[in-house]
Design brief:
single chain; 179 residues; mainly alpha; 4 helices; 47% helix; transmembrane helix; Angiotensin ii; transmembrane; AGTRAP; membrane
Length: 179
């Protein structure tokens, strides 16, 4: 049996390919409909080709979310009275786009993208897998580092320190004691 890598992403590509081509069978949709759907399909192809990169998936996600609004505008302004099959396929494509967006968001996270950094909130468990940012380190404030106490005497005269028990070096002009 042949194993197809990325079968769901390829199914998304072919489904949106057919649902983008069928509305263009007649000349009711503006040419912008062709262009933004073509850009979306190219981003999906790029994501299929680069299996580890999250960038094409994020670009496809952004274009797909923008396409939801653009499809609504196209249908509101140019709904045809006679080409109902073409308009029906456009409506079906519009209904499928939010499901595709959720899948692309999950795939973006699986490929190493962090949508928590983008300010996208968790929706119905979609964002539950993503990581959070680490603790903020203020580099303007000096940090105190605790050093554990050891049994080693570092203030002994053998190390060049004064033997008076203060642990300080001798005053200037006095010679250091050698072991």
């Amino acid at each position: 049996m042949v194993s197809v890598p990325n079968p769901v992403l390829k199914a998304v590509f072919f489904l949106h390919l057919f649902l983008s081509v069928w509305p263009l069978l007649e000349f009711w949709a503006p040419s912008a409909y062709l262009y933004y759907n073509l850009l979306f399909l190219l981003m999906l192809l790029w994501g299929i080709h680069h299996k580890e990169s999250e960038e094409p998936i994020f670009m496809a996600l952004v274009i797909n979310i923008a396409s939801i609004l653009l499809d609504i505008i196209v249908l509101a302004l140019r709904f045809p009275p006679t080409f109902t099959f073409c308009a029906g396929m456009c409506i079906f494509n519009l209904i499928l786009r939010p499901v595709t967006s959720i899948y692309l968001l999950r795939l973006f996270n699986e490929r190493g993208g962090r949508y928590a950094d983008l300010g996208i909130p968790s929706f119905a468990g979609v964002g539950a897998v993503g990581g959070t940012r680490g603790q903020y380190d203020d580099i303007d404030q000096p940090t105190t580092q605790s050093v554990p106490k050891t049994g080693i005497d570092t203030g002994s005269p053998g190390h060049g320190f004064a033997g008076d028990g203060t642990g300080l070096p001798p005053p200037y002009g006095h010679g250091y004691s050698q072991p």
